[in-house]
Each structure stands twice: as C-alpha cells, then as structure tokens.
Model the fold of this input.
Amino acid sequence: MPRLVCCNHCHILQRIPDVHPKTPMIPAVLEWKDGERYVYRDDDGLAVMVPAYDPILEDFVEKHSHGYDDNTAIRGLVEVFQIDKRAWDTMDVVTKVQSELQRVTSQHYAEVDEYKEAALKCYNAHGNPDLQDGCRDYMDDSKRIGQASYDDGDGHRIEIPPHFRQYLCYLCPYQQTYIQVELRRRRGAYDDNVHMKRLAQQRKAARR
Done:
C-alpha cells in the first residue's frame, strides 16, 4: 500500500514506496543492548507486524534521528501512515493527513518528495535515457536507497536480499516509462494481433 512518513521534528511529510509485496513480516520490536525490549502492539494487544526489510524507511529514520534516543523514537518522532490504494486513488490523502497533523500539533507539515526528486535529477543528468540508449547506472549500488546490510545490535551483520532492496531507479521515468512498458510487452500486453483484431471490431461496429 502507498505510505506517507512524517518527521515531527522537521514537520515534513514524505511519500515513500511500499516494500516488495513478498517481503516477510516480523513483530515490531525495539531492543536495547541491556536486554530491555519494547513490543509495539495494536488495540487488541497483538504485536504489530512490520516488514523484515524496509531500507527506504530505515533511510528516512536515519536521516531524521536528530540525535534523539530510542525512547523518543517510541513516542513518535517519526510516524508512518499506511494508506489503502482505493483511498489513495480517490482522495487527496496528503492534504488530509497534513490537516490532521496540524489539528493535533498546531504545526504546518510541508510536503516533500526527496526520493522522487533525486530520481528525476539523475534521469535528467543522464539525458533522459530510453531503452535504445539504456541507463549506465540502472540499479547500480550508487542508486540504492539505504544500506544493503545492517548490524542487528548483537554484532551480527544482516544482509538484505537483493530483491528486497530499494533504488532510486524504481521512481525514475526510465523505469516507469520504458522498463515497465517493455516488461508488459514481453508478457503479451501489447500483442499486435490482439490490438489489430480489436481495432477491426471497433471499425466494424462504427459502420453499423
């Protein structure tokens, strides 16, 4: 589902892509080095489940930690709003969330879109590549959002599987305009025979 994330220190609201649909889910837990644990729970007392790998959210949190400790993070320094697809498509959810945040905090939250802006800047810098020219650093590590691995706090290095990592490329017109179109074409979505048959049927119906 589409997501909005806000920083209650900067008073900004940012759109971020959802994680890969097959990302495994785990309980939302904060754990300190002394062994103390905090488990996020819903209104029914059940553990809130979150993606095991969410590099783009981790990147946002890292950029917006502002030197606060974990206890402050628990109290909502950064908040995430999951928006169902129907609501996202049928209403201005950004303005609605902005209004609600302003009502609760008396602060105005500015909308930013740093990841998409960075992707567009990269696209323009490359001269607006297409499938014929290709993009020289498509899915390169230099375009990765967040880390490819992280320390779990106990000295263990956790690798994020490649297909669960996030890249600026996912937000780039090159991906959305050319790569996605090519993938659909390979799946037969643009089958010329089907298209011509439909066109002939439409013309025949129009002459009646």
In short: The longest strand covers residues 3-7.
